[in-house]
Write a structure and sequence with these properties.
The protein is α/β, with parallel strands linked by helices. It has seven helices and ten strands. Helix 6 runs antiparallel to helix 7.
């Protein structure tokens, strides 16, 4: 069994070394692929200085989240990896969660993706996400257990999708296709699409409540209108890819009504 750890990095000089340090704290010779998405800061130099032994893949342009991770995935496949672990460059490994979750995937061949609970870095007892849910009518893709206190329990739960911040993927499912759909650009909804495709293949997506990983970044949607529109656009893409014509009609109309209400409320608040 061979595992490849893929970390997508972009202008991450303030976080990538902390992420790598936390991995090497628990694992002696991890097989890591850092894909640099054309960073403009010192992150590449820092990686070369502190961890020259890792596989550093340099992109000539910012490929976005999906295509960037796909680049690392291609290298992992060529090296014969049976599983990949996708990590954000702003996560902190808190314990050995890799070994037990690989054992889970080895023992249960129906698992397509699995991940730990993601907790806040500022308070590692507060859950950011224990996976997510997918409502195919409203296209709500909310996080499970968000804001709740983390309790270490021996439980593995089926979820709609596993967060892209920390997710194991069985590589055999994607040897003849892309991992993430690069049309979800530059980011958002790509992990929902991945998990949904895996479910359609007959496999499951799971989160283990027995292990956690800290995430520095926030999983809540940004307040910026640009981010909101990107999420909305990618939800439209998800609907077109996976839903029937009738479901698309209801889902798209629901999203549009929600979008216009949001705009209206902003205008009202400005006038108050």
């Amino acid at each position: 069994m061979k595992l490849g750890i893929i970390i997508l990095s972009w202008n991450s000089e303030d976080r990538i070394i902390n992420c790598l340090d936390s991995i090497f704290k628990f694992y002696k010779n991890p097989n890591i692929y850092v894909v640099d998405n054309n960073s403009k800061d010192r992150s590449v130099d820092l990686i070369k200085k502190h961890y020259p032994e890792i596989n550093l893949i340099l992109s000539n342009s910012n490929l976005g989240f999906s295509a960037g991770n796909n680049l690392g995935f291609v290298h992992a496949l060529k090296d014969g990896c049976d599983y990949v672990l996708l990590l954000n460059d702003d996560v902190i490994v808190l314990e050995d969660f890799i070994s037990p979750l690989i054992v889970e995937m080895e023992n249960d061949k129906t698992i397509g993706t699995i991940g730990p609970v993601v907790v806040e870095n500022y308070d590692r007892n507060i859950i950011q996400s224990a996976g997510g849910k997918i409502n195919l009518i409203t296209l709500d893709m909310g996080y499970l257990n968000k804001g709740e206190n983390y309790k270490k329990i021996n439980k593995i739960k089926n979820v709609g999708y596993v967060l892209g911040a920390a997710v194991f993927v069985r590589t055999s499912l994607f040897k003849n296709s892309f991992l993430f759909d690069p049309h979800f650009y530059p980011a958002y909804v790509e992990e929902v699409d991945l998990s949904y495709r895996i479910k359609k293949m007959g496999y499951t997506n799971k989160v283990s409540y027995n292990y956690k990983i800290a995430h520095i970044g926030s999983l809540s949607a940004s307040n910026s209108s640009i981010t909101y529109r990107r999420i909305l656009n990618n939800k439209f893409l998800f609907a077109i890819k996976h839903l029937s014509v009738i479901n698309i009609f209801f889902s798209v109309n629901f999203l549009l009504v929600k979008f216009f209400i949001k705009i209206l409320l902003k205008k009202i608040n400005r006038n108050l």
